[in-house]
Every structure is written in structure tokens, then in C-alpha cells.
Specification:
The protein is an alpha+beta fold. The chain has helices at 21-26, 57-69, 104-121, 164-176, 185-199, 203-226, 238-257, 259-266, and strands at 31-32, 43-45, 48-52, 78-82, 85-89, 132-134, 143-146, 149-153, 160-162.
């Protein structure tokens, strides 16, 4: 269950201003933003991102305010809510449209960024009885790059309290593991180890990281199976959703088939 408040959390409505979200997305000044594949109707007007409010908006607002308060700069600032839209600061940079092969420096930077985000939530009312607050989708398509380096995460709508391995496993998968790349499995395993090193996993966590990757891949199948029923979901055809489900299953089968290689790299 998601807590609804945090220490010194500001109400999402206190700084509300501007036009309704529908008017914003139809405005000639609005620039649609396509980072990620989950939310519909996200647009930028000037330096402000307008994101349709949803069930997780209050928690997202509290989390972004907490991250700002604790000095974490790798996330948008929460600016308020206006007529059905959450207002966020725009982070300049590049968001990759597709997964690709990443350098060691990029993978390590992503893992270090995730660790800094997690550390900023540790011990907070939002994390509650859990270890940290998880982003739950810290893949490359939700990262802002500057000069080729990931410097921030976006799209915190799925954020919720959890164990840090949930996020580390998803990051290791989406930044380092791929069934259809030409990168050799041992090279992929080296980058999974790099994630563990750059994040700073304990030996016991490293020992179960591959199991956590497999669980996240299985969870992704469930997520896309249920996706059409989600309110405010981005448009996706049945064929597109079917391919995402099939991709997640291929990734799971690939990881499972080569788990001894990944486990050996993490030992």
C-alpha cells in the first residue's frame, strides 16, 4: 500500500496554475514527449511538462518533492497540479527511443544514478517498512542523457515502496541483457556484474540478482497482459502489446538458458 504523505510534503494543488491538460496537448506550443511507452498525453510547454494525473499522482508528487528536498538532482521537480495535469520541470537532454548496446561508462552511470535515488528515499515515510522507494521502470527509455551520459530518470508514475533489487534487476536487464543482440553472452554478463559493482550490491544480493532479473521479466509479461485495461494508458495495438509480451518471454528464456554465465560473473 502506498503511503500518501511524507515529511513536509506540499499539497499537489498549492502551486496549481495554467490551462486544462486537454487544452495543453492541443496547443500549438505543446511538444509531445514520447519517452517511455506507458503514459498518454504527456507534453512540454516551455520548461514545464504536463502529464495527465492518475492514480499514482499523489505518491509521485510526494516522491519528487522528497528527492528535491534531499538533494537528488536526477529527477524532474514537481511544480504542482493544474486542471487534471501534474506539472513537472523539463529536463533537457536526449531520451533514447529504443533499447541499444550501451558502453560500460553508461551502464555504470545508470547504476550509480539509481543508487543515489534509492539512498535519497531510504528511511523516509514514503518507503515505510520497505528498503527504499523503487522507480520500477529505470530502463534506458526513461533516462535523460547529456553528452552520452545518463544523468536523470523520468516517468515516476509507477514508483512505489519496494526492495532495491527490484529496480537493480530491471536496470541490469534493460541496460545489459538482450536475447537478440549480437553482443556475446559473456560480455552481457560482464555488464551485469558492472551494474552490481557500480550500485554497490552486497554479496548476498549479488547471489540472487539473476533470480530477480528472471522475476522482473516474468512480471513484465503480466504488466503488458494487463496493460489494455489501464486508465490513461498510451495507445498500443494488440499486435504491439503481443510483441512486448513475446519479447519479455524471449528475454526470460534467454536469461534462464544462460544463467550459469551470469551467476559466474557475479560470484
Amino acid at each position: 500500500m502506498r503511503p500518501s504523505t511524507s515529511p513536509r510534503t506540499r499539497s499537489p494543488s498549492r502551486r496549481s496554475s495554467g490551462p486544462p491538460s486537454d487544452a495543453v496537448t492541443e496547443s500549438p506550443e505543446a511538444v509531445p514527449l514520447a519517452g517511455g511507452r506507458v503514459a498518454a498525453g504527456v507534453a512540454r510547454v516551455g520548461d514545464v511538462v504536463h502529464r495527465p494525473a492518475g492514480a499514482g499522482s499523489d505518491f509521485m508528487a510526494a516522491l519528487l518533492l522528497l528527492l528535491e528536498e534531499r538533494g537528488f538532482t536526477g529527477a524532474p521537480r514537481y511544480l504542482g497540479r493544474s486542471a487534471g495535469a501534474d506539472l513537472l520541470s523539463y529536463l533537457p537532454g536526449d531520451v533514447p527511443a529504443r533499447f541499444q548496446t550501451w558502453s560500460d561508462a553508461q551502464v555504470a552511470a545508470a547504476a550509480a544514478l539509481l543508487r543515489a535515488m534509492h539512498d535519497a528515499t531510504r528511511g523516509s515515510a514514503l518507503a515505510g517498512r520497505f528498503d527504499v522507494v523503487c522507480h520500477h521502470d529505470p530502463g534506458p527509455n526513461n533516462a535523460v542523457f547529456r553528452d552520452g551520459v545518463p544523468v536523470a530518470f523520468i516517468d515516476f508514475a509507477e514508483a512505489a515502496p519496494g526492495g532495491r533489487l527490484e529496480d537493480v534487476a530491471y536496470l541490469a536487464w534493460t541496460w545489459a541483457v538482450a536475447s537478440q543482440r549480437t553482443v556475446p553472452v559473456r560480455r552481457q554478463a560482464e555488464q551485469v556484474r558492472l551494474v552490481a559493482d557500480a550500485y554497490g550490491l552486497e554479496p548476498a544480493e549479488r547471489a540472487v540478482l539473476v533470480d530477480c532479473i528472471l522475476e522482473r521479466q516474468s512480471r513484465n509479461v503480466r504488466f503488458w497482459t494487463e496493460f489494455p485495461a489501464r486508465a490513461g494508458a498510451a495507445a498500443a495495438t494488440a499486435a504491439e502489446i503481443g510483441e512486448r509480451i513475446a519479447w519479455s518471454r524471449r528475454e526470460h528464456a534467454f536469461t534462464h538458458a544462460h544463467r550459469e554465465v551470469f551467476d559466474a560473473a557475479l560470484a
